[in-house]
Amino acid sequence: MAGTVWDSLRQAMKTAGIKPRSAAARQWYGTVINRLRIPTNRSNILHDPRKATAHALIGRMYAFHYIAKYEDTLPVWDEFPCVLPIEIYPDGFLGLNLHYLDPGNRLALLELLHDFITNTKYNDSTRFKLSYSVLNGIKKYEIMRPCIKRYLLEYMESPPIYIEPDQWELAVLLPFERFHHN
Questions:
Q1: How many Å apart are CA 29 and CA 42, to the nearest integer?
Q2: What SS3 state is found at 139?
Q3: With DSSP H G I counted as helix, E B as strand and the rest as coil, what are the percentages for the chain, rounded to 5?
Q4: HEC states along 41-73?
Q5: Taken in order 136, 141, 142, 145, is the CA torsion positive or negative?
Q6: How far is 155 from 151, CA to CA, in rounded Å?
Q7: What averages of pLDDT result for each successive group of 10 residues across the chain (182 residues)?
Q8: Which neighbouring-strand residues pair with 95?
Q9: Sign of dihedral through CA atoms 120, 64, 107, 136?
Q10: What is the distance between the alpha carbons of residues 7 and 107, in angstroms, rounded to a whole number?
Q11: C-alpha 182: how far from its chain's center?
């Protein structure tokens, strides 16, 4: 399936001769992202059946459409989270929704979390070895506190869309969040 934001940006970056996960890539993302048009339903991000998964796994990154259980009473919630699950439960998971940080801090947190990366191949074998108990006890990970959110499967409006490791930096910079405030 061509036409997803991931595919077109990956191809444009390759055509421009820019190496992923480099300073030049981050600068390029900033330029390109400012010109991107993201539909209100996030169809160019969330409707890729090749990357839809039945369930989320710890240490991988996902995007999905979510309606909060307490949507009318939560002070703020994100309808289109970008999450790294850190604990799995029978009815959902606990994860780090990187949208609760500004883009610069999202990149900073990703960089800190590289302490827990399984390898540097940035392919399907790459993931973060994360758990709440490990992250909670280390002061340098305090930046993640506002990102810790619980997601219930019954409130997910789309399947989780797996974000490939070579697209993590791009994913945290794309402005596809939609916050609701009460």
A1: 18
A2: helix
A3: 40, 20, 40
A4: CCHHHHCCCCCECCCCCCCCEEECCECCCCCCC
A5: negative
A6: 8
A7: 61 78 73 63 66 90 95 96 96 96 89 91 93 85 92 94 88 88 94
A8: 85, 149
A9: negative
A10: 21
A11: 24
Helix (H) or strand (E) holding 83: strand 82-89
| Greatest CA separation for the chain | 47
Helix (H, G, I), strand (E, B) or coil at 23: helix
Specify which residues 156 forms β-bridges with.
Answer: 66
Which of 173, 160, 165, 170 is closest to 57 using CA atoms? 160
One-letter amino acid of 17: G
CB 64 within 8 A of CB 115: no
52-80 per-position pLDDT tens digit: 888 899 999 999 999 999 999 999 999 99
* Residue whose token pair is 């990149």: 107
Structure token digits, residue 59: 């240490």
What is the per-residue pLDDT for 63?
92
Evaluate if pTM is beyond 0.90: no
Instruction: Give yes or no for a contact between 63 and 81, defined as CB atoms under 8 angstroms apart.
Output: yes
Q: Is 18 helix (H, G, I), strand (E, B) or coil?
A: coil
Tokens of 65: 């459409």
Query: How is residue 33 written in tokens?
Result: 């992202």
